[in-house]
Amino acid sequence: MHKDLELAFHKIVEILKEDQRCKGGWHYGSISRGAEDIYSDYDPVFLVANKDFEQFSKDVPQIISKASDELLIFWGESFNDGHFKNYCSVIRLGNNLHQFDFFIINSDYPEDWMCRQHLKGCTRENIIFDRTGEVAKLLDKGFRTDNYIPDSIRAMDTYWFHTEMLIKYFKRKDILKLIKNIDILFHSHVDLLLSQYDTLDWGAWESKVKYCVPNDKQHHLKSYFANAEFKDLEEAVKSSMYLFKQDAEEICEIKGINYTNSIAEQVISYFNKRMEEDD
Q: What is the value of pTM for the model shown?
């Protein structure tokens, strides 16, 4: 953790300790897992009663501004609602810019999905401060969300459907549609791998891939990235679809899934044939 950011965080905590609307808070993210480093930021979660929730949320920019030299960006998540809010900020501290996230949970609705997600895995050891004792009692309840595991068959169907779809975009020379649909191939491949290897109880797909998927399989995911030129993208698709087929066959065997090889074989064969044809 950067020293400047540590000082700003402690200033915010001192401000909130004087704000009777804030019942207390706890660490979420890398700090709660003991995995922070000098590049980490803070992910504090603060508990506020329903009657104060909206007004307290409106006052968050002023709270962050008081602890920084300048608040450059204050960005609320699109999923923010009356039960849970996350505000992502970029603040200036001296000559340095830092990210600071600020989560708020409505204490009257702790069982809402996003609230449970930000209670998941947190214990009394993660408490920042607890004015009323409610934070400790809430963390003791052990609220959590289930770990979502992607559906292998849907990942395969999605992949081969969009591989066939790519043909018309190559023929039309529609670079933006190609980029969009190759991104779908990439994330379908991610889903396929996570359907087998995900054992991580926290984090988004990139963390799950990093910590759960074998290195050789992670390398397969790099094959999708190429210069945004038609020939380079065509070669990237040709190489990645064979790697996807290989991974799909292995995972189907492990999981006992009966997914016919003819789907991949026909799509690959047709794709290669059409790419060689002059229309």
A: 0.90
